[in-house]
């Protein structure tokens, strides 16, 4: 059983997430996300023998996606799904092991699917904070969360209930302005990077600025009380 202190520590760490995220890529990343949701499952389309996720929290990813948007065919795009880390772990999902080829030669065959070569300044995918599950497909549970770039795209993923449209209007300045309304149902919970940007107010640059104003050995005076 997890003790209360550990739960408090986990809750206080903004760099940790309860979810693992699978993002789509390329020019048609949104369409790929729609297909995943329509199929109801993730598929190993690259035939790697596993499905890949990142444990990086959403609040740390906005700036990364800004970099990828400079490219016509981005490695990752701000469209994906988030699944509970605990549920995936129970199903066999595990964190990637980063190391050298020499390291991996000492590992048993049944661990090789988790290995990713790491060479500082040469080959470094550790920023992915990757987890993998050894499976060709994975059914998406209803409790997943859906990530899109914009709030409007969240609306586009809602389902038309099939109810009749309502037509109405208002008269303003002597002119009639008509409008039509319809009913749409939320199929999945979701969040847009557009909204996430609004809460990403503390960057590493800001942290560095604070630290640069501090020097080891600095002396400050404090009021220790009154007498």
Structure characterization notes:
The chain has 227 residues and is an alpha+beta fold. It has one domain. It is built from eight helices and 15 strands. It has helices at residues 4-12, 29-39, 62-68, 85-90, 101-105, 151-156, 193-199, 204-212; strands at residues 19-23, 41-43, 51-54, 80-84, 94-95, 97-99, 115-117, 130-133, 137-139, 145-148, 159-160, 166-172, 175-181, 184-185, 189-192. The strands form six sheets. Strands 1-4-10-15 form a four-stranded mixed sheet. Strands 3-8-5 form a three-stranded antiparallel sheet, with no helix packed on it. A two-stranded antiparallel sheet has the order 2-9. It is elongated and about 80 Å long.
Mean pLDDT: 85
Can you tell me the residue ranges where pLDDT is under 50 for at least 5 consecutive residues? Answer: none
- The sequence of SSEs as H and E is HEHEEHEHEEHEEEEHEEEEEHH
Number of helices: 8
Give keywords:
single chain; 26% helix; four-stranded mixed β-sheet; 8 helices; 227 residues; alpha+beta; three-stranded antiparallel β-sheet
In short:
With 227 residues, this protein is of the alpha+beta class.
Q: Which secondary structure elements does this structure contain, and how are they paired or packed?
A:
Blueprint: H1 4-12, E1 19-23, H2 29-39, E2 41-43, E3 51-54, H3 62-68, E4 80-84, H4 85-90, E5 94-95, E6 97-99, H5 101-105, E7 115-117, E8 130-133, E9 137-139, E10 145-148, H6 151-156, E11 159-160, E12 166-172, E13 175-181, E14 184-185, E15 189-192, H7 193-199, H8 204-212
Parallel strand pairs: 6-7, 10-15
Antiparallel strand pairs: 1-4, 2-9, 3-8, 4-10, 5-8, 11-14, 12-13
């Amino acid at each position: 059983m997890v003790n209360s202190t550990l739960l408090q520590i986990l809750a206080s760490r903004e760099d940790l997430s309860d979810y693992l995220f699978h993002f789509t890529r390329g020019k048609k990343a949104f369409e790929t996300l729609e297909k995943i949701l329509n199929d109801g499952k993730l598929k190993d389309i690259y035939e790697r023998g596993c499905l890949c996720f990142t444990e990086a929290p959403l609040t740390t990813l906005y700036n990364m996606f800004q970099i990828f948007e400079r490219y016509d065919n981005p490695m990752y795009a701000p469209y994906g799904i988030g699944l509970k880390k605990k549920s995936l772990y129970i199903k066999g999902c595990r964190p990637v092991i980063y190391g050298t080829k020499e390291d991996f030669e000492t590992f048993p065959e049944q661990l090789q699917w988790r290995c990713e070569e790491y060479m500082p300044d040469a080959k470094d995918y550790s920023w992915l904070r990757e987890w993998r599950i050894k499976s060709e497909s994975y059914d998406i549970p209803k409790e997943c969360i859906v990530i899109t770039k914009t709030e409007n795209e969240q609306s586009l993923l809602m389902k038309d209930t099939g109810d009749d449209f309502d037509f109405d209007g208002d008269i303003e300045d002597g002119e009639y302005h008509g409008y039509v309304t319809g009913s749409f149902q939320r199929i999945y919970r979701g969040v847009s990077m557009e909204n996430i940007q609004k809460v990403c107010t503390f960057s590493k640059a800001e942290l560095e600025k604070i630290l640069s104003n501090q020097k080891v050995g600095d002396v400050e005076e404090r009021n220790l009380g009154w007498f």
